[in-house]
Structure formats: structure tokens, C-alpha cells
Design a protein that fits this description.
single chain; alpha/beta; 3 domains; 9-stranded parallel β-sheet; globular
Length: 287
């Protein structure tokens, strides 16, 4: 007669939760194992929320219909882009106080939406610069708000058409981000502010200028980004992976652009990459 091996409940739970986090595609299957595993794993269904058009309305309504779910404990990452019901998203954010990573690009932002961030302790934030700064009539001094005091990673991009950017005198609020160590910019924005930002933020260990599927942007970007040849913290990245895909990968513990840029700098420090090389070109196929 053989006896079936059993694990202590704490270890069993850790095994299932680790499996779910490392392989999120199997979460639905794990929910069917047994009742106790269902209880352990269910919150991980909401660990990473991606809310985008055209199904944003349905997703938000579904979440609102489940008040029994402790979203403040379950949700850690939210990707919120191109949604139609901004009021519902603000309500959702007030329930997700445990969020540590937020990416949003929303056309009809309201002050209430941004005020909902006050309950969070964000570590990573990705924003669409024109809407964030201008649709609300905000100045860059908004970064002095305590909402952003815990930020370590800030990415500022341009999803909408915008041809004007403020000068550094309007961006000096960035230096109030005392926890900031990583800053990413799109090439168009970097052309305007990278020089003064690099000088003003000595605590930042990594500056990344990112272009998704548009490597030619670096042709004009490098013309005004000679700072990359002087500061080893600056990395240029031409990527094929789309923003949403890259963000999702990082949220589940994978190698997002932050991780890949850090690895690139580590290789430079180790002498495996030429000191004069600043470009990670992921658009070039490996032979």
C-alpha cells in the first residue's frame, strides 16, 4: 500500500501561487483543481488589469458588478488606455489602492481621475504627456504632489499628435521626485528636455529614450541628443514589441524595456559592450 505525499498547506499554496504568477495563462486551469486552490488563486485573476477599447465598457462594468472582490489586495498593475467611461475608471481606481504600476493614456481626463491616485503608492507610472499635462491645465509642478512621492520609474510618451512641449522651467517639478531612479521618454519629448533633465536629476541611474516600431526617429533624435555621448546613464532603444505587450510582460515579472536597458548598462560596465555604444536596436533580426 502506498501513501500519497502531502505538503504543508503554506507550501502548497506557495507552489500554486508561484505557478500562477510565472505562468498566468494556466490560472483558469488551476482554479479547477479544488476549492482551496480556487480561493488562493482567484485574486491573481485581477493582479494585472488591461482595460482598453473596444471592450473597456464591458470590463469596467464586470468589475463594478463584483463588489465582493477585494481589489485593493488583488490588483497590482493597471493598463488603462482609450476608454470611453472615464468616470467608471476613476471609481475603479479608488478600489485599487494596492496598485504599484499604472499606465494610462486617456483623452478625456478629469481632475477626479487623477485625484483617485492619492490612495495609491505608485512605484511605476507611464503617462501620455499631452493629455496628462495640458488637458487638465496642469503644469509640471504637479509632480510635486505627494501622489508621486513614491515613484521610482516614470515613463512619459506621446500617443496623441502634439507638436509643443514646455521648456525646462516648466518641467522642474520632476526634481521633486525624491524616489525616482528610472526615467523614460519618447524621442520627440527627449529632443526637448533630455539635456536639462539629465543634468537636473543626478539620482536617476537610467534614462531611456524609447521608440516602438519607429527606429528612424533616432535619426533626428540623435541630432539633438548629443548628451548620450557624454552620460553613460542614457540608453536609446528601438523596439519591435508594442507598449501594451511590453508592459504586460513586465507586470508578470518578465523582461520589460526597463529590465533590458538595465542589462545593457550592466554589460557595458562589464566591458561586454563598447563604452561608446548607446543604442539597443531590437529591430535588427539576429542571424
Amino acid at each position: 500500500m502506498t501513501t500519497q505525499a502531502t505538503f504543508p498547506p503554506e507550501l502548497e499554496r506557495e507552489i500554486f501561487e508561484t505557478t500562477a504568477i510565472c505562468y498566468p495563462d494556466v490560472i483558469l486551469t488551476l482554479l479547477l483543481v479544488c476549492r482551496r486552490v480556487h480561493v488562493w488563486i482567484s485574486p491573481l485573476l485581477y493582479r494585472v488589469l488591461i482595460i482598453t477599447a473596444p471592450r473597456s465598457t464591458e470590463v469596467l462594468a464586470a468589475l463594478e458588478s463584483k463588489p465582493e472582490i477585494a481589489l485593493d489586495d488583488a490588483v497590482r498593475h493597471i493598463f488603462l488606455h482609450d476608454i470611453s467611461r472615464i468616470e467608471d475608471s476613476a471609481t475603479l481606481l479608488t478600489r485599487c489602492t494596492g496598485v504599484r504600476s499604472l499606465s494610462f493614456g486617456v483623452a478625456n481626463l478629469t481632475p477626479e481621475f487623477l485625484h483617485s491616485l492619492r490612495l495609491m503608492h505608485l512605484r511605476k507610472l507611464c503617462i501620455d504627456v499631452p493629455y496628462f499635462a495640458y488637458r487638465l491645465g496642469w503644469s509640471w509642478n504637479a509632480f510635486r504632489h505627494t501622489n508621486f512621492s513614491s515613484l521610482t520609474h516614470l515613463a512619459m510618451f506621446q500617443e496623441s499628435v502634439w507638436n509643443e512641449y514646455p521648456d525646462w522651467s516648466e518641467l522642474d517639478g520632476l526634481d521633486s521626485l525624491s524616489s525616482l531612479t528610472h526615467l523614460a521618454l519618447c524621442p520627440a519629448l527627449a529632443n526637448w528636455i533630455l539635456h536639462p533633465v539629465v543634468k537636473a536629476l543626478p539620482r536617476v541611474v537610467l534614462f531611456v529614450v524609447c521608440a516602438w516600431n519607429r527606429p528612424k526617429e533616432f535619426t533626428f533624435a540623435r541630432y539633438r541628443l548629443s548628451v548620450v555621448e557624454q552620460d553613460p546613464r542614457v540608453v536609446l532603444m528601438a523596439m519591435t514589441r508594442q507598449h501594451e505587450e511590453d508592459w504586460k510582460r513586465g507586470s508578470w515579472g518578465g523582461d520589460d524595456f526597463w529590465v533590458r536597458a538595465e542589462m545593457f548598462l550592466a554589460r557595458k560596465r562589464a566591458g561586454d559592450v563598447e563604452a561608446t555604444c548607446h543604442l539597443i536596436d531590437e529591430t535588427v533580426e539576429s542571424i
